[in-house]
Amino acid sequence: MNIVGKHVVITGGTSGIGLALMRQLYDNNDVSVISRPSDGLEELKRAFERVNIYEADLADLGAVEKAADLLVKSEKKIDVLINNAAVQYTPHFLDDDFQYESIRREIDINFTSVCTLIYLLMPGLMQSNPAIILNINSGLGLVPKTDSAIYCATKGALNILSQSLGYQLESTNIKVKQVFLPLVDTAMTRGRGKNKLTADEVAAEIIRGISSSKSNIYIGKVKALRLINRLSPSLAQKIMKAG
């Protein structure tokens, strides 16, 4: 698919990778952003007058349903749905600062809202030929690390969802893709890791991946992780556990 003249829906388009994607797609496409009310969302409205804004905290499934309903009622076809938004909480279960209520929020934002939006936006996706559902995943969806157990679990679930949904939609106009990311230099990863790719670099690779025939796109260090995991799963687990 050549990403020009398309209607692209992005979740979490006010910062990080989502904002980089929005900027790179904006000039040549009709872009809609689903994001929680914030100063970043207000800045987005001012900077990009043509962007379509749908306010929803993705942890609030009622708000997600309302945003999806508004999108469907707009009667616009959806060429590309990019499920990008995610949160990651790093405390271990036994840490004093682990917050029980964060479990539900992390799962709802990273996984449940993805399932919800895919289902509710299916009418718009069915109008386009072809249409693409792109789920932004992580190397942690392949091999987990010690920190962020819930985040790793949601990314593993997203990997399986993408594969199974791809089978379900195989005979339709909709193709399911996912991108596996390394550590990217965003607010979520501040203070962690070195030699991180920038959000702009990753966004450019994601857009190239959308245009390719590949169902799975591996970026940066995830390429090596995938190879190690194929050759020696135990080694991959050891590396990620220590990291």
What do you see in this structure?
Pfam families: adh_short. GO terms for molecular function: oxidoreductase activity. This is Short-chain dehydrogenase. It comes from Ahrensia marina. Strand 2 (30-35), helix 2 and strand 3 (52-55) form a beta-alpha-beta unit. Helix content is 45%, strand content 17%. It is an alpha/beta fold. The mean pLDDT is 94. The strands form 2 sheets. Strands 3-2-1-4-5-6-9 form a 7-stranded parallel sheet, sandwiched between helices. It has a two-stranded parallel sheet with strand order 7-8. The chain has a single domain (7-242), classed as Rossmann fold.
Give the class-level CATH name: Alpha Beta
What proportion of the residues is helical, as a percent range?
A: 40-55%
Report the biggest beta sheet as strand number plus sense, adding barrel if it closes: 7 strands, parallel
- Level-2 CATH architecture: 3-Layer(aba) Sandwich
| Average pLDDT reading | 94
CATH topology: Rossmann fold
Total domain count: 1
* C-alpha termini separation: 37 Å
Assign the structural class, choosing from mainly alpha, mainly beta, alpha/beta, alpha+beta, or little secondary structure: alpha/beta
Q: What's the alpha carbon Rg, rounded to whole Å? A: 17 Å
The proportion of strand residues reads 15-25%
Order of helices and strands: EHEHEHEHHEHEEEHEHH
The name of the CATH superfamily reads: NAD(P)-binding Rossmann-like Domain
Which spans of ≥5 residues are poorly predicted at pLDDT below 50?
Answer: none
How many strands in all? 9
Q: How are the strands of the largest sheet arranged?
A: 3-2-1-4-5-6-9
Shape: globular
Helices, by number, come to 9
